[in-house]
Design goal:
alpha/beta, FAD/NAD(P)-binding domain, 6-stranded mixed β-sheet, 20 strands, 44% helix
């Protein structure tokens, strides 16, 4: 039987074990149940769907996951990091596909060769549920859709979507881990003074698949995240354990809607993704493309995340983001780490725990939401620019020279536990330093050329040099 630890507060005095209702049995909810169960809390997990361990995977809604440092830490805290890393496939960089089928490798970390891991959503969820179920104080409840809640009193009303049977429950603490369209947040949002925004981007996504080769091998080098950047849209592919590739096409809905028949689809792929046709297979491409509709992508920002010491939202319920930084799951898992740390420090003072979580976490959540939105532009367009590649090489060199001082943005987000807001502040500081250095170097260069021109050049040449100097000053 799995050991359950007695909860103690930060001052060494016994702390009250809570009766916690976790709403949502997805990745974040099942991991939080593990964290709380390990600490000795009585946990009831409620999931509106059937048990994913016996359900079929819904095609078209399973964007693969990229596990990085923040998620690994949260898994390590419940003893599951190594289990998931053995299942995951390491990806050490991006492999870019151009229109001619040429491939270029852009490593994530050229200095220390750190990588992210491609993991299957269903497998990860199954592992977390299996582990949670081993705790005698963790109880899993499926087909329980939350329809109403009195958060102040801890009262919950559910309905079984299969039988329409209703049921009630009560808890000391309610934690909403129920995704971007959270029923718990729906109750919180009714309260005065609540800040909330949701942004749907004009781009959607559709999932395709690259099968193994006839010999059963990966069809492409498998230790990379493959990207087909095409300016206003892109396609990516992540490797799976069965040697297939989960391929996701991201582009504006108007582009999706313009493709109405097999021929238009093939013409589109011949123009923008010619090398992918043979990889996917013509018949499979047509079948998968028209099998489902493209799905929407939404970003949600809100605050606060808590209702006193009675209710809290975490994960996508608190900060849904577009998937382009690979941090949605990792940020949700980090929520579990932060919440557990606060419970360790403050013990039974749940009001303080939730208030501190909300006050400190929303800034980081808003930051990673913004970074995820920016990274779509980077992945679909900027990765092909010389300026981007030059900056990346420069960052790599400075990181090599000053590993404790100069940490590139991607490294700080994916390979450290630096607060997301600090990652952005760090990048702004780096930009300011480079601007000053490059500006100073440019002025010195022009001054030297001007001195030589003044001594040996004509008036026209001097005029050209003056114009160059003025342009630099305007840039500044």
């Amino acid at each position: 039987m799995t050991a359950v630890y007695k909860q103690t507060s930060y001052n060494g005095l016994p702390a009250r074990n809570l009766n916690v209702a976790v709403i949502g049995g997805g990745l974040v909810g099942s991991l939080l149940a593990l964290h709380l169960g390990k600490k000795g809390h009585e946990v009831d997990l409620y999931e509106y769907r059937e048990d994913i361990r016996t359900a079929e995977l819904v095609i078209g809604r399973s964007i693969n996951l990229a596990l990085s440092a923040r998620g690994r830490k949260a898994l390590a805290e419940v003893g599951l990091e190594e289990t998931l890393l053995k299942h995951g496939i390491p990806m050490k960089g991006r492999m870019l596909h151009d229109l001619k089928g040429n491939r270029t490798v852009v490593p994530y970390d050229a200095n220390t060769n750190q990588c992210i891991y491609s993991v299957g959503r269903k497998h990860l969820n199954e592992v977390l549920l299996d582990a949670a179920e081993k705790y005698p104080n963790v109880h899993l409840n499926f087909n329980k859709k939350l329809v109403k809640a009195n958060l102040d009193e801890g009262e919950l009303n559910f309905i079984n979507p299969l039988t329409d049977e209703s049921s009630q429950a009560k808890a000391d603490l309610i934690v909403g881990c129920d995704g971007a369209y959270s029923a718990v947040r729906k109750e919180i949002i009714k309260r005065p003074g609540y800040d909330f925004s949701q942004t749907y981007i004009e781009h959607g996504y559709l999932e395709l698949c690259i099968p193994p080769t006839r010999k059963g091998d990966f069809a492409m080098p498998h230790n990379y995240l493959h990207i087909w950047p095409r300016g206003k849209f892109m396609m990516i592919a992540l490797p799976n354990q069965d040697r297939t590739w989960t391929v996701t096409l991201f582009m504006p809905f108007e582009n999706f809607s313009s493709i109405k028949c097999d021929q238009e689809l093939m013409n589109f792929f011949r123009r923008y993704f010619p090398d992918a046709i043979d990889l996917i297979g013509r018949e499979r491409l047509i079948k998968d493309f028209f099998k489902t509709r493209p799905q929407s992508l939404v970003m949600i920002k809100c605050k606060p995340y808590n209702v006193g010491g009675k209710a809290l939202i975490i994960g996508d319920a608190a900060h849904a983001m577009v998937p382009f930084y690979g941090q949605g799951m990792n940020a949700g898992f980090e929520d579990c780490t932060v919440l557990t740390d606060l419970l360790n420090r403050h013990g039974s003072d749940v009001d303080r725990v939730l208030a501190e979580f909300s006050e400190t976490r929303w800034q980081d959540a808003h930051s990673i939401c913004d970074l995820a939105m920016y990274n779509y532009v980077e992945m679909r367009d900027l990765v092909t620019k010389r300026s981007y590649l030059f900056r990346k090489k420069l960052d790599e060199m400075l990181f090599w020279l000053m590993p404790n001082t100069w940490v590139p943005l991607y490294n700080s987000v994916s390979f450290t536990h630096m607060r997301y807001s600090k990652c952005i502040a760090n990048r702004k500081w780096q930009d300011a330093i480079l601007t000053r250095v490059l500006y100073g170097s440019s002025l010195t260069f022009v001054a030297v050329i001007a001195a030589v021109g003044y001594k040996y050049g004509s008036k026209d040449q001097l005029d050209q040099l003056s114009a160059m100097l003025l342009n630099i000053l305007k840039y500044k």
